[in-house]
Every structure is written in structure tokens, then in C-alpha cells.
Design a protein that fits this description.
Chain lengths: ~625, ~625
Amino acid sequence: MNHDPDLWRELGQQLRVDSIRCSSAAGSGHPTSSMSAADLMAVLVTKYLHYDFDRPENPNNDHLIFSKGHASPLLYSIYKAAGAVTDEELMTFRREGSRLQGHPTPLLPWVDVATGSLGQGLPIGVGVALAGKRLDRLPYRVWALTGDSEMAEGSMWEAFEHAAKAELDNLTAIIDVNRLGQTGETMHGWDIDYYAGRLRSCGWNAIEIDGHDVEEIDRALSQAIATTGRPTAVVARTVKGKGVESVANKNGMHGKPLPNPEEAIAELGGIRNIHVEVPKPEGTGEPHRFEVGELRLPTYERGSLEATRKAYGDALAALGSARGQVVALDGEVSNSTYAEIFAKAHPDRYFEMYIAEQQLAAAAVGLQVRGWYPFASTFAAFWSRAYDFVRMAAISRADMTLVGSHAGVSIGEDGPSQMALEDIASLRAVHGSTVLYPSDPNQTAQLIAQLPDRKGIVFVRTTREKTPVIYEPGDEFPIGGSRVVRQTDSDQVTLVGAGITLHEAMKAADTLAAEGIRARVIDLYSVKPIDEEGLRAAGRATGHILTVEDHWPEGGIGEAVLSVFADTDDPPRIAKLAVRELPGSATPEQQLAAAGIDAEHIADAARRLAGELIGVGGGQEGRK
Amino acid sequence: MNHDPDLWRELGQQLRVDSIRCSSAAGSGHPTSSMSAADLMAVLVTKYLHYDFDRPENPNNDHLIFSKGHASPLLYSIYKAAGAVTDEELMTFRREGSRLQGHPTPLLPWVDVATGSLGQGLPIGVGVALAGKRLDRLPYRVWALTGDSEMAEGSMWEAFEHAAKAELDNLTAIIDVNRLGQTGETMHGWDIDYYAGRLRSCGWNAIEIDGHDVEEIDRALSQAIATTGRPTAVVARTVKGKGVESVANKNGMHGKPLPNPEEAIAELGGIRNIHVEVPKPEGTGEPHRFEVGELRLPTYERGSLEATRKAYGDALAALGSARGQVVALDGEVSNSTYAEIFAKAHPDRYFEMYIAEQQLAAAAVGLQVRGWYPFASTFAAFWSRAYDFVRMAAISRADMTLVGSHAGVSIGEDGPSQMALEDIASLRAVHGSTVLYPSDPNQTAQLIAQLPDRKGIVFVRTTREKTPVIYEPGDEFPIGGSRVVRQTDSDQVTLVGAGITLHEAMKAADTLAAEGIRARVIDLYSVKPIDEEGLRAAGRATGHILTVEDHWPEGGIGEAVLSVFADTDDPPRIAKLAVRELPGSATPEQQLAAAGIDAEHIADAARRLAGELIGVGGGQEGRK
């Protein structure tokens, strides 16, 4: 922890030079956005950041998150100065196959999360800081470098509010107020008083400085680590492109390599090769672990009624008693999602995120950075509020589960604003995601128990209404499987449902059976990955598949099933029932009927399909 | 404008009683959340709101937006008091077929937008207020009733920041701080100083009052209309369930009818039938109209290179010169989306929304409330940030266009954080949406020109890279159509692409032609609605379709095409190429190759499909 202003200044210049060099070599990138924050980072990494680059898995490491991910040249230049990457690797910036991508991703072992969508790094940092305080119970610190443009994102203010409420004095935001955005001046230019005022009104300690005065930076960071009971923001007035006159504080230079890099490098004093000894963590503590016992999942009696959302809460509480790394978060609707059952059982591991779904998702990402397994819940419709965070979480290779209750028109009277009808489509279209839609409480419990071992983003869609228990406790439901719940050896049509529509399909099958039409019924509880083999077998056997979903027709169960049969020989005829008109208020039964996805409409559609079968002819197995 | 405290108090009680009555009749709803704001609204609607219930289309009407949409019983009780709905209709609350849904929607002529997803009404109100100031240039006012729970949504703070920046003194936020959320106390309980402090730090005039003291309410609203140069927030300390002791300020009473409605009504002094004369608008002005001339769309020479994003900017500027109601907004990336061309041509009709995509979407919704036609643009990936706003905009029956540039892996070096790969899936799954993905600059211009007459939410996906101009200026491209760009009378396979992949498909067709394999190529520029007839004709003619998209495999072009052939006789064999692995940084060409969607991979897949054709046999037209 040396006080070495000359080193800081020299290192700042080196970071600028290297940012210019690598972006010029790449022919793209954001050198000017890197140059504004170079002095801030020079002081931070030589004196305040505690990080063992040889052991990124050290639980006592601090966390440095570039919320302004486009300043990646600066981050990578720091890695070079720290000896973590070579100058040669630095020059691979933005090339195919390089770990040094245009925006940081956890392909680099020292990067916690992907950034590049502005306004996400700080909210995720709140999650990491919460893990430090409440779960790991270790004194590591979280440092988030943010831009001033991203201060316009509401998600930042969710983060500022939550961090103050949680008294996260282990979190420091370093705000690089370089005045210029991509197209021109930000809303507040160099008015750092404005930012500091808003931060103070949220309960933060805000320190206003000249972001190029290394002594001021040093004092501010020193004050940040000395401040207890509240987080600190260093609000730094900086110059975009600082140090190179032709670009400094000039509009029109965002996201472009410097026009004359050689001259610029000369102006900055030439190439340096300072090696920085980043301070190692002082702590040697081990993360706190919660005591656990055996897994005793809840059980539900076959034939009784229970909602899958309630089974989620029961199962999660049970899972928490068996798996210490399981934690839960909710967006102030825990008495609807039933996360409250976990909250009561495991208050130390429950995080109330209030009506702030972006921070809800971001905190979950932050908690999993430290190895905790988060289950985050709200109404399924409101996950749409955090869709960008979920998209980015996939790029962060995050492992976590999002639970959405109150899916579909079957919620009834509350009306369309509360109905998720696009959630399956949007969550299927997240890279590497798993989409589950359980139909039964015992099944819900079995699925939930598998999730802490699952890679990637998992979305679980639960149902508001109580539905019949159709499976035995202990029945197994592998992710990627499906379950045939009605079958004869001469089925004429397959009905595919999940969640609420499975029960309607089962009722329809009963009606059809009474008419002599034999319908197979498949519970497609795993929408992604989907049981290709099971569906193909049903397609071969019956020649006709009818999908039924409480969701818009686009991107949901119907299209997932259609994709199974893309590019295959002799696909079955596939028809889909889905919600096509905008619903209003009505009872759940009325809603299902109005949407054309209740038992009666399913039976009608199945009769028509069975008629097609007879009319069309063609030797499908199903006719035998 | 009478000062009549007794009337206000009595009306407040009536609004409470009616909120209890209608929610009790419905068996669900939010009476306690209505009761807290009843006095605030009683004073507002008798003295300050200027609204002609007989002429909701009167351009001089004020706008009352219930950002806390769950207080719908209060809103509908106001409508009853104003004589707009009968007591009989009030009692249909939440029943099937009633206009009085669980949360307000514009099925009611006095409701501008659907609310019920918290944190949206105020940001939309900012849009309406912007229209009043900058477009209509009329003195109407916007009143937004917000809850305290929704103050945790970041979108609220985007709105507060923007309203102050735009000096919207025609906007008043009435913040109903009733302390209790759905599950317990909010983050700040009754700390109205906290809220007022944060609002003042944003530049708002904040007035703290007792929300049940009608004289204080009157003074605050009077001060709000007298304040110029900045918006005013009335921060009102209120009691949830006010007036009924058994529920007042009690947790656990959110979203539930009162347990003993008869007793509660008696405690409130019984049923009243006060009729309120809501003041009529004083102004009689007509909305400002912008001068326009003839439409002169830009033209591009066949064979030259241009990006569709650039054509978007050119076409939008031209459209603005011909259609006065066209306005544009952008999220601080207008030099990437090329909205800057419109901004330079029509600065009066351009709105810079900075890096705040939720406010960007919300402002567009607000502008279209007043009949303006908004084109809102940002990177396609960042529309995911506003997905809940787009979902709700569809419920609001909003007419507007969202433009997303930089779609897909073909953006190149910036990496996955900037690549939209889920936008087609998520935007297709918006009720009533249109999804366009132009492949050519002349086509882009033709499509853009049609949009101000289009109902619903339109999403236009544009491409970063320059692509060849393949169409003549003036060629027509109806929405819902497609275009065959390569065809012989004996095609063996159909290649379906759009945007960047169309050009790869055309190159592949050339390669295949040299090998004697005849490929039809279809430009699927209209992904939703989709050209069912054209695709079916191609399917019949060639028996094999290969879709190629710069998007994840879920919910995109491939699944849209599969859906066309669902439940049809003799569907073609359909194979799809899409992005399946998480990309990194690389050149556009490398990205397309790595994702398996470039010309070479298309040709390979087409060869295999053509082989299947020969191998499988079966008399498809394509073999002749």
C-alpha cells in the first residue's frame, strides 16, 4: 500500500497507451472511454484493489466490475500491467478466438460477469456485495467502474437505493463523469454536483473529485474504505480521451480507434512496461457455510388439489434445508409466488428486492458469482422487466433459476397486465436456457430439487390456480423428459399440454374416450430441452399432435414441438391451440374457454384432427 | 373551481365506499390501495382536473394516468361520480365482458394507456407531457397517481430525471405513500422526506403533505399548477385502507376485498351518490400541426452497397417531411441507428431519450396517446431492456414503431452483449405486433413509409453492415408479403432468408446453380404477418425449405415458417440454420461462418436437403 503518485501517473499513461495500441490494432473499440478512467484505475489497482491474479478463485479476492464494459481496453491493459496477460495477448483484442472480446466476459478468469449493456455492472455488484455481507461473511470489497451515460438507466438507481438500504459499505462505485456519450453531451455534462446530490439523497457517501488528480483519487478511495454503514461513490470529473489533445473532450470520438495512434502514444510519453504488484487479499477466511440436513421434499396426495406455485415454495424451503448454497430472492410478491415459505424457513438466505425486477435479476447474478445458487421469483409477466438482464446473464454463463408465477390467462380477473403470455417465447430464446412448466405439485418438487446442479439460466413457470395432483410423491421427472399420462395401444391423436393446459387436455381425453376417440396425452413439463424422442414416438404412433398452451401462439410450446419435427421423415400433422385474442377480466374457467384452450375446445380440435386422419388416409400407425 | 372541503371529504368517503362495493361484488380487487388515495383524487377531480367526459377526444383535456393501476376501483368510482359510468356498470367490475377490468385499459375511452405493471404510468405520462409542450403546444396537464411501492422501479427515476430535464411543468406526480406494499412495508415506509429529497435532487418541486387533509391537498395542487419551469410531485403520507379501522394500516390486506364490507360502508357513513362536475377544459386551441410536402423517399442504385440502418434514417427523414404526425426518439445511439438524419431534418419532432430504454419506449407510448406516430430506435439488443413496456404497449393498443439496429452476429467485433439474437422471438410474441426485417435499402424505405398507417406495435430489425442493393427504387413491398429473388421453373429447394442472411442465401444459390442444383430464394422481409401463401407455393413447388437466420433457433424465422405449415396437407421438409453457439468477437464474415449461416453453410445444407429429396422420393413438384 504505497503512496506513489509518480507511479500512479506513469501507470495511468501506460494504461492509456495500451488502450490506444490494442484498439488501433483491432481497428475498433473504445480508447477514449478508457482514457478518461485510466488514472482512477491506476490508483485503485496499485493500492486499493486486493486481488490474487494467480488465484481468481480465492474467496477473499475483491471484485472489480466494469459496469462501463466498453472500456474493455482499459481493463485488459490493467491485466497486462498486473502480468495476467502478455502484451502479445493484449494485441489480440477483438480478434476471432481471443479471450479479449469487445466487451468483457467471464471467459477471462478475472471477470465475474459480462458487461456491455449499460447499467448492469453496478446492480450486479450489489449482488456480490450482498453475498459478501450476508452469505460469505468475508471482508472482500466490490469496486464498480461506471460511466456517466449509464447513470440515465433506471437500473442504476435501483442499485443505488438497494445498496444504501442494505448498508453495503463494502461497495464502492467509481463514476467516470467524462461528460460525453456516444452522440454528444450527457443530460448533465460535467455537473458532478447533480450526481453527488442524487446519490446522497439515496443515502450514499458521495465524494466529488478531479478524476485525473491522483492525490485526490487516493484520498477518495481511502475515504471509501474507511466509511462504514453506507456505500461510497467517487464522483470523478474526467476528460474523455484525456492526454491526447486531438481527441480530448471532443465529440464524435466515441467507440473509434484514435486517428493518429503513433502521435498519440508519443504525446503520452511512449510505450511503458510498468509491472504492477496488485495487493493480495489480506483475509484468509473461508466463506460461511449454512448447516444443512437431509432433503425432505414435500409430498402431495394424489387426487387432492394444489397450485404448483405453492409446491414451489414448499419445495424450495425443503431444498434450502438440504443444500446450503441455495438462496432465494423475490420482487415483493413472495406471498403470491410462495417464496415466503423459504423466507420464513431460511431468513438468512432470503433477499427481499421489492418492486425492482432489474435489481432482482442482477442481485441473483451477483450472488451466483460467489457460488451461491439463487432462486429468484416474481410474476412471470414481470420477468419481461428484466429481460435484458437475463439475456446478459446467459452471456455471463450464470447459473440460476428464475421462477415466474401467475402465468397465462388462467390467472383470471386481474386481466392482461398480470398475465405472462410471452414468457415461454422470450425465455426459450435465451442462450443455453432451460424452460420448465410443471403440471403437478409432486413434479414441481422433483424438478426444483434438480436445479442447483443445472448449468445456465433456468426458468420455471408456475400456475396460480390449484390443479389436481396426478403424480405420486417420488415419481421422477428428468429435465428434458416428458410424461405420457394417457395412452392406449391404438391412439389416434396426441394431446400435448403443460401446466394448466395438461389438465384440460386430460379432461378432453376423457370426453373423447367416451366417444370412442383414443387420445394420448403428454405432459411436456420440460419445454426446453424438449423430449424429442418421446414426441417422435408419439408422432409415429398417432400421426397427429395437438399442442395446447396458455401463451401466445408465437415461440411457445407449439413452435417448440414443431421444431422437434423439422427436417425429419414423415412428421405428424401438428395443430396448435394458443391464446390469440387479448384477454380481459373473467374467471379462470371463462378465460380458458374464451381463449379456446379449455377441455371443450381441445376435444373439438382433436375430433377435427381425428377426422383429418380418417379423411386423409396414408397408413400412419395411429390408424391401426 | 370551488373551495369546498366538505364536498371533498364527502366525495372521498364515497370513492372509498364505491371501491369497497365494486371489489366486494367482484370478490377480488384492491380496495385498500384505492382508499389511501381517495382524498387526493376527490380534490383533484372536483377542482384541478380539466376533462370533458362527453368528449374524451377533446385535445384540450387533461390526462389522468393511474400509474398504480391496481387502484382501478378508485378510478372507476371517480368515473361513476363524474357520471361517466352508471352504478350498475360499476358493479360489473372484473366480470367477463366488462370494460371495468382488474387494471385499467383503453377499452374505456377516458383511459389513455393500460397500467398494472408498476412503474409505467408516470414514464408514459412524461411522453404525454412532452407531446403537450413540444408537439401539440396546448396547455393541458398530465396528472399521474403513483404508488410508493413502484417508487422502487428504476423506470420511475428515468421518468423523474427526464421530466426535470425537459422542464415539464405541465406534469404533476401525486405519490400515494401508504407505507404498505403487497407483502409488508416498503423500503422507506412513511419516510416521505426520503422521497421528497430524492425528487428535489432530480430537479422536481416536491411538496410533502398529509394525504387525507383536503385543505393541504388543495394547497399542494394549487402550488403544482402555479409552479413553472419544473414538474411538481405531491408526496402524500396516506393510510392504506383509510377510514375503516379493521383494515387501515394493516398488513396482509393488499389485493383483497374487505372482510366485512357492510360494516365498512357503515363506518364510512354509508352509500352516497354525489355527482361531481369535473371542470371542463378552459382552452379551445387546436393542436399544432407541422408543415409538410410531398413524400420523396430516398433511392439507392441497384448494385451499390448500403446498410438498411442508413436507409431507415434516410427514409424516416423523408417521411417526416411528408407526414406531420411522424416523430422520432432514440436512446443516445442515433449515429448508429441513423435516427440522427431525422433529428437534423426535423429537430422539433426529435426526442433524445439518452441511455434509458424504458423511458424511450414509455415516451413513445405517451406521444402516440396524443395521435403522434413515433419511431423509436436503439440497438435491437437493447429493446430487451424495455420488453415489459412493449408488452404493456400492446395492451394499451398503442400504434408505434420500434427500430432495432445492429441485429445478430453480423455486427462483428463488439461481441454478444451488443448482438440482438432474441429480438425476433420476443417481439413476435407481442400481441398484434408486426415484425419486419428488410434486406435492402429501397425496400426499407418502402416499408418505413407504410408504418404510420399500421395499427399496433411494429418492430423493424435493421442491419449494421452494408449489403448490396437488390431492388429498384419504387418496388413495392406490402407488409405480410415476401419476395422471390431467385426462381426457375424446376427449383429443388427453397432458401428463406431476411436481412443479412438473404444475401448469403443468394450467394449460396449461385454456388448451387453452378453445380446444377436449382434453389429458389425468398426474401422474408415480413416475418409477422408472414406470407403464408407465398411460402406454401414455394413449399409445394420445391418440397424442401431451408430457413437461415442471424438469431437463436428459438422463436425466430425458422419457427415462424414451421408454423405456416402446421396443420396443413403435405408440408415440405423444413430445415433451419440459426445461431447456436455463444459468439465472441470476430469480423462480420467470421461471425457468419462460425455461426453456420454464411453462404457456404447454406449451400452445404441445401445440398443435403436436395440429396434427401432424391433419396426420399415421393413425387414432389420440385423433382420434375
